[in-house]
């Protein structure tokens, strides 16, 4: 009888421990970040405020005194996106371990501009690196290829608060 109870306890604890371990491997991007100067954007000075909830991530970008807000669901559905230039579009996001993938689409002069961002938070949570890639599916292939080659970049941000 005693062995039976021990087995029941183990069956109850092991799945809980596994889910706790998995939860620990998921990053929480909530916080305020300031962009580090880079060769492509030496004086960008943009600020990123992120609120991560169970069902969505809200991203507020302050760049050149212009504030844009995007709310990207984490369940695969589309949410409202605003580009840094103020163009409205759609977005969705998903968490993959310690990374976040944000995909957005805006339409500019009857052509779609798709952006895929891969967010990676450092182990200590103090640095956020965002790699952005753009493509232009409605442009002629040679134009799309030429534009896409020049639009991939990584921006690093430093956390300025502790959530």
Explain the overall architecture.
By secondary structure, this protein is an alpha+beta fold. The chain has a single domain (28-159), classed as Lipocalin, CATH 2.40.128.20. It contains 2 helices and 10 strands, in the order H-E-E-E-E-E-E-E-E-E-H-E. It has helices at residues 2-24, 141-149, and strands at 31-35, 47-52, 56-63, 66-73, 79-82, 88-96, 99-108, 111-121, 127-135, 153-159. A 10-stranded antiparallel β-sheet has the order 4-3-2-1-10-9-8-7-6-5. A hairpin with a 5-residue loop joins strand 8 and strand 9. The chain starts with a helix and ends with a strand.
Keywords:
163 residues; alpha+beta; Lipocalin; 2 helices; 20% helix; 47% strand; globular; disordered N terminus
Low-confidence stretches: 1-23
- Overall 3D form: globular
Taking Cα atoms only, what radius of gyration do you get, to the nearest Å?
Answer: 20 Å
Major β-sheet profile: 10 strands, antiparallel
Structural class: alpha+beta
CATH superfamily: Calycin beta-barrel core domain
- Please count the helical segments: 2
Distance between the first and last residues' Cα: 49 Å
**CATH class category label:** Mainly Beta
Compute the number of strand runs.
10
The SSE order reads HEEEEEEEEEHE
Write out the strand line-up for the largest beta sheet, numbering strands in chain order.
4-3-2-1-10-9-8-7-6-5
Q: Approximately how much helix is present in the residues?
A: 10-25%
Q: Could you name the CATH topology?
A: Lipocalin
The total number of structural domains is 1
Strand content: over 45%
Q: What is the average per-residue confidence, as pLDDT, rounded to a whole number?
A: 81
């Amino acid at each position: 009888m005693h062995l039976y109870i021990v087995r029941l306890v183990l069956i109850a604890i092991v799945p809980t421990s596994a889910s706790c371990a998995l939860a620990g491997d998921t990053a929480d991007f909530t916080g305020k970040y300031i962009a580090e100067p880079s060769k492509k954007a030496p004086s960008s000075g943009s600020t990123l405020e992120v609120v991560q909830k169970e069902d969505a991530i809200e991203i507020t970008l302050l760049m050149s005194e212009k504030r844009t807000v995007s709310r990207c669901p984490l369940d695969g559905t589309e949410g409202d996106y605003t580009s840094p230039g103020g163009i409205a579009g759609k977005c969705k996001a998903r968490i993959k371990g310690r990374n976040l993938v944000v995909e957005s689409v805006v339409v500019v002069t009857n052509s779609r501009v798709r952006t895929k961002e891969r967010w990676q938070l450092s182990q200590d949570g103090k640095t956020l690196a965002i790699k952005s890639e753009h493509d232009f599916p409605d442009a002629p292939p040679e134009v799309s290829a030429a534009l896409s080659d020049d639009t991939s970049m990584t921006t690093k941000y430093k956390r300025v608060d502790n959530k």
